[in-house]
């Protein structure tokens, strides 16, 4: 624990280092260079009355950043001025350049206002100084309130209306189609499924074809392979996927090819043997 005591003491010292401003001052000059107002800035209280600039006035701000404990100059990594219009909610951030001696100078010329100055209204801009350093605690100072000429209304962009909130779309759907009675559906389903079989049986008994070799040992495997194809198509309609059907169909195709050749060969042999 004694070994870490110096490190803890050093960390506490660094954490306690505080920045402050030395000789903060503002000056307002007219277009001709006449000094209209010049006052030091308090760290705890804003100047009264608030600062006011005309379209041709210039505001100059100067101060030095030092360590509050030892008074040595500090060059923070981040130094910004924040302009905030509380009425409109607009704000602008102006980075400031810091010399190695910690001195900062800023000039706001209203004839050529910087881009960081937000659109202004009749309300004053709250000017705040923001300091950030890796070796010191951050510092935020409310410098003063500043009245500047109100900016012109912002010209709306031609496509601005495209980004506005549109009214909610109310969808209107057609009512669900009514299903026919189950009896009617069953009748038509039966007609589709069993109708071809009825026609087949009627034609079969009407024509009465002669099929003496249909169930012979050489022809029966071919007949069964054709029936297997029909069953495969039925399974595809019920549960199988296309890839499975192609795989099983390829296997059945080979079986049907060999059984068909054998059936045709046996029929041809019997026909050749029946000739005188």
Keywords:
276 residues, alpha+beta, Immunoglobulin-like, 4-stranded antiparallel β-sheet, 4 helices, 25% strand, rod-shaped
List the topology elements.
Elements: H1 5-16, E1 19-29, E2 35-40, E3 51-52, E4 58-67, E5 78-85, E6 91-95, E7 103-109, E8 125-133, E9 136-147, H2 182-207, H3 220-238, H4 242-274
Parallel strand pairs: 3-9
Antiparallel strand pairs: 1-2, 1-4, 4-7, 5-6, 5-8, 8-9
Helix pairs in contact: 3-4
Q: Which class best fits the helix and strand makeup?
A: alpha+beta
Q: Provide the spatial order of strands within the biggest beta sheet.
A: 3-9-8-5-6
For the record, the count of structural domains works out to 2
Q: And the CATH topology of the largest domain?
A: Immunoglobulin-like
User: Proportion of β residues?
Assistant: 25-35%
CATH top level label of the largest domain:
Mainly Beta
Question: Can you tell me the residue ranges where pLDDT is under 50 for at least 5 consecutive residues?
Answer: 1-14
Number of contiguous helices? 4
Largest sheet: 5 strands, mixed
E-strand count: 9
Overall average residue pLDDT: 84
| H and E order | HEEEEEEEEEHHH
Radius of gyration: 48 Å
Principal-axis shape equals rod-shaped
Q: In the CATH classification, which architecture of the largest domain applies?
A: Sandwich
Helical proportion?
25-40%
């Amino acid at each position: 624990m004694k070994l870490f005591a110096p490190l803890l003491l050093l960390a506490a010292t660094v954490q306690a280092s505080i920045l402050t401003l030395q000789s903060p001052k503002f000056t307002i000059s007219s277009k001709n260079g006449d000094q209209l107002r010049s006052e030091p800035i308090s760290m705890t209280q804003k100047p009264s009355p608030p600062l006011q600039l005309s379209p041709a006035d210039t505001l100059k701000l100067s101060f030095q950043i030092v360590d509050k404990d030892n008074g040595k100059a500090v060059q923070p990594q981040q130094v910004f001025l924040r302009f905030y219009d509380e009425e409109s909610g607009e704000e602008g951030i102006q980075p400031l350049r810091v010399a190695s001696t910690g001195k900062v100078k800023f000039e706001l010329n209203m004839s050529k206002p910087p881009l960081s100055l937000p659109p202004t209204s009749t309300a004053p801009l709250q000017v705040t100084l923001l300091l950030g350093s890796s070796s010191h605690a951050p510092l935020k100072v409310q410098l003063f309130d500043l009245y500047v000429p109100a900016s012109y209304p912002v010209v709306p962009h031609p496509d601005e209306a495209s980004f506005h909130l549109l009214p909610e779309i109310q969808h209107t759907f057609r009512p669900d189609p009514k299903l026919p009675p189950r009896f009617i559906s069953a009748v038509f389903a039966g007609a589709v499924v069993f109708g071809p079989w009825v026609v087949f049986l009627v034609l079969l008994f009407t024509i009465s074809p002669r099929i003496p070799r249909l169930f012979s040992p050489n022809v029966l495997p071919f007949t069964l392979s054709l029936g297997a194809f029909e069953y495969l198509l039925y399974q595809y309609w019920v549960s199988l996927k296309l890839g499975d059907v192609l795989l099983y169909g390829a296997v059945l195709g080979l079986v049907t090819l060999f059984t068909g050749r054998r059936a045709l060969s046996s029929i041809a042999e019997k026909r050749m043997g029946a000739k005188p």
